[in-house]
């Protein structure tokens, strides 16, 4: 099955569009998710001015912008429409007031953004994320329940699915009706300090190359084939060990992903 093989361009977030397009296409990708954040080349405040030209430069190098990682302010929606970017990716953050109150707050924020998504024709994609976020695919589906499917999508993530203890053969069919983007990265849990005599210890995710982690990319890509999903598959380029250049790891992971998907 052929996917739009894409990459999250956060590792090179300060590059202008022409340089980024050459780099991304040189790595073998034809799609890109662009960070639109205060620390990036395109900031939320400058998105209206910069994003259309930025994405045009990417397209000139054969790279299509699949989404932006940003927030739900109206200028970002307007910039995405002008630039032809179909989705804004966000996460559902949990605050100190607890899970239930946080989910209610995030839900209100999404409801408030619904007219913007409809009016500008730009989808909102919500990604599960370990830690202080709604961390499971089912949790995100519950969060989105009742919101228009055409405007609110799930960005399924292989690493965070595995960190939540889930199985892609279960979660991908659950989110199929809202599935917008599939993120591929991988992780293991590592102990952050020596364990004592007592049961327990402190653990944290450690992001590793695709073939090495808890997430089964072959199972995920096989499930996508069964579902007939042809949307973007985005490699996140997140690796905890800085000893190998991210570009080298991404080339290897893209080859592994294409092989697992049966792609040429």
Automatic annotation (TrEMBL):
Which InterPro entries does this chain map to?
A: IolE/XylAMocC-like, Xyl_isomerase-like_sf, Xyl_isomerase-like_TIM-brl
- Output the Gene Ontology terms for molecular function: isomerase activity
Looking up SUPFAM superfamilies in the UniProt record yields: Xylose isomerase-like
Name of this chain's protein: Sugar phosphate isomerase/epimerase
State the superkingdom: Bacteria
Q: Which PANTHER family match?
A: HYDROXYPYRUVATE ISOMERASE (PTHR12110)
Instruction: Give start-end ranges for the coiled-coil region(s).
Output: none
Keyword annotations for this protein?
A: Isomerase
Q: Does the keyword Isomerase apply?
A: yes
Q: Which organism is it from?
A: Streptomyces asiaticus subsp. ignotus
Q: Which Pfam families match?
A: AP_endonuc_2
Q: Which residues form the Xylose isomerase-like TIM barrel domain?
A: 76-240
């Amino acid at each position: 099955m052929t996917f739009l093989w894409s990459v999250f361009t956060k590792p090179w977030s300060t590059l202008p569009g022409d340089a980024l397009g050459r780099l991304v296409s040189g790595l073998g990708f034809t799609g890109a998710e662009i960070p639109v954040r205060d620390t990036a080349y395109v900031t939320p405040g400058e998105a209206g001015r910069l994003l259309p030209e930025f994405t045009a430069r990417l397209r000139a190098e054969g790279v299509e912008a699949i989404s932006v990682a940003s927030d739900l302010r109206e200028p970002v929606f307007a910039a995405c429409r002008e630039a032809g970017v179909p989705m804004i990716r966000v996460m559902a953050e949990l605050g100190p007031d607890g899970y239930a109150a946080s989910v209610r707050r995030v839900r209100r924020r999404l409801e408030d953004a619904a007219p913007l998504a409809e009016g500008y024709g730009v989808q909102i994609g919500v990604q599960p994320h370990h830690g202080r976020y709604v961390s499971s695919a089912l949790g995100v589906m519950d969060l989105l329940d009742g919101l228009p499917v055409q405007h609110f999508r799930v960005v399924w993530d292989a690493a965070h699915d595995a960190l939540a203890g889930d199985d892609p053969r279960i979660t991908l069919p659950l989110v199929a009706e809202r599935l917008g983007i599939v993120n591929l990265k991988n992780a293991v849990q590592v102990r952050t300090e020596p364990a004592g005599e007592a049961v327990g210890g402190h653990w944290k995710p450690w992001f590793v190359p695709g073939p090495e982690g808890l997430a089964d990319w072959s199972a995920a890509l096989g499930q996508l084939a069964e579902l007939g999903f042809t949307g973007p598959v985005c490699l996140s380029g997140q690796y905890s060990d800085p000893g190998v250049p991210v570009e080298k790891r991404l080339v290897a992971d893209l080859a592994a992903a294409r092989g697992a998907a049966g792609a040429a």
